[in-house]
Specification:
mainly alpha, Rhopdopsin 7-helix transmembrane proteins, DUF6533
């Protein structure tokens, strides 16, 4: 049974409102930790990146949700769609940058790995930028909000960004698993395999949740009705912002330098990024910027 445009618009608006509610609720319940561990400490680069990810993402989510209810002309709706695509691209670029830094620190500042990750990111960003800039849709009329209709060919091209993000997330997860198990073997001699597994568990939770949402969003471009194609984009954005913010907060509880810091041994609270060395030196916190 087909669903009319009005019903599709209601479903999409409801999804957007639910995603925004989840994001803002999580923001409120973690605000005390943010004030304690980030606002009250010196503003290092990691704190600035945290703010950019969290608050630019919140602005994007609020704007995208509000525009689902605002009535505007087709011309203005198309203009807003271009603006929204730029913000989405920026938000995803920030998230990817954070995980490049995380992996770079995890591997002890390996320059070759950094070059590989940057090259891979640029290779993935090129088709993403093309898909966002070249594809056009039609603004739906006689329904509330800015709702775009995409034909099958356009929707297929617009699926490229979440597909590229899935590839990037998979790469980061594989690198994390490889490093964690490699260190876990060496850590057996120190009787700390449980702490190693904490790092793997945290990365696995992020990957599974974000990957599932991204895969569901990709499927909407191929099988969902016209107005619901890409309808889970706002959900994937809110989930990614929430997960990255929580991962960074976990690290800032231990180290002011945040994702730019790494330990010579793993602690249970330093979940977001860690370096393991064979040295038996203390718990000092050098940074990859040193």
């Amino acid at each position: 049974m087909s669903i009319g445009y009005e019903e599709q618009a209601i479903i999409r608006s409801s999804i957007g409102f639910a995603a925004l509610t989840f994001l803002l609720y999580d923001h409120l319940i973690t605000l005390a930790e943010e004030v304690t561990y980030i606002w009250a400490h010196p503003k290092h680069a990691s704190a600035i990146l945290f703010f950019v990810n969290r608050y630019l993402g919140c602005f994007l989510a609020v704007t995208q949700t509000v525009m689902l209810f605002v009535i505007m002309s087709p011309e203005r709706c198309i203009q807003y769609t271009h603006y929204r695509r730029v913000l989405i691209f920026m938000n995803q670029a920030i998230v990817c940058t954070l995980f490049i830094i995380r992996t770079y620190a995890l591997y002890g500042g390996n320059k070759r790995l950094l070059a590989f990750l940057l090259f891979t990111s640029l290779a993935l960003a090129s088709p993403v930028a093309w898909s966002l800039a070249r594809q056009q849709g039609t603004s739906a009329t006689n329904i509330p909000g800015c709702q775009m209709i995409y034909n099958t060919n356009t929707a297929t091209h617009l699926a490229i960004p979440p597909e590229a993000l899935c590839i990037f997330d998979t790469l980061i997860f594989v690198l994390t698993v490889y490093k964690t198990f490699k260190v876990g073997i060496r850590s057996n001699a120190h009787s700390k395999p449980n702490l190693v597994m904490l790092l793997l568990r945290d990365g696995a939770i992020y990957f599974v949740i974000v990957a599932m949402v991204n895969l569901a969003n990709i499927l909407t471009f191929f099988v969902a009705p016209e107005l619901l194609r890409g309808g889970l984009t706002i959900v994937s954005i809110c989930i990614a912002i929430t997960m990255v913010s929580r991962l960074m907060l976990n690290l800032h509880k231990t180290a002011d330098a945040g994702i730019f810091s790494y330990r010579k041994h793993l602690t249970s609270s330093a979940i977001f990024t860690t370096q393991f060395l064979d040295s038996e030196e203390g718990w000092d916190l050098p940074t990859v910027m040193d």
